[in-house]
Design a protein that fits this description.
The relative contact order is 0.20. By secondary structure, the chain is mainly alpha-helical. The radius of gyration is 17 Å and the shape is elongated. The chain is built from two helices and no strands. The longest helix is centred in the middle third of the chain and has 24 residues. The chain is about 65% helix and about 0% strand. The model has no long low-confidence stretch (mean pLDDT about 80). Keywords: Membrane, Transmembrane, Transmembrane helix.
């Protein structure tokens, strides 16, 4: 039996999921890379950098994939 979408259900492509995983990993990996190559970060610095990366990635994902993830009838 073939899988069919319900009317109004969004289409999530593989590229959407890969981009979302990369955005989530970036919030952890980028501050750790900074600590390895530059120097230690305080908890507040780690928290704020993670928040800035997460918000920036969310806005970027929204603008990049908004047209391809629209609800279709």
């Amino acid at each position: 039996m073939k899988f069919s979408r319900k009317p109004g259900e969004p289409i999530y492509l593989r590229k959407h999921m890969v981009a979302l995983v990369l955005a989530l990993l970036a919030t952890i990996v980028l501050p750790r890379l900074y600590e390895v190559f530059v120097g230690p970060l305080s908890f507040t610095g780690r928290f704020l950098s993670g928040m800035v990366i997460a918000v920036g990635a969310g806005i970027g994902l929204y603008f990049l994939f908004r047209s391809s993830a629209q609800n279709q009838p």
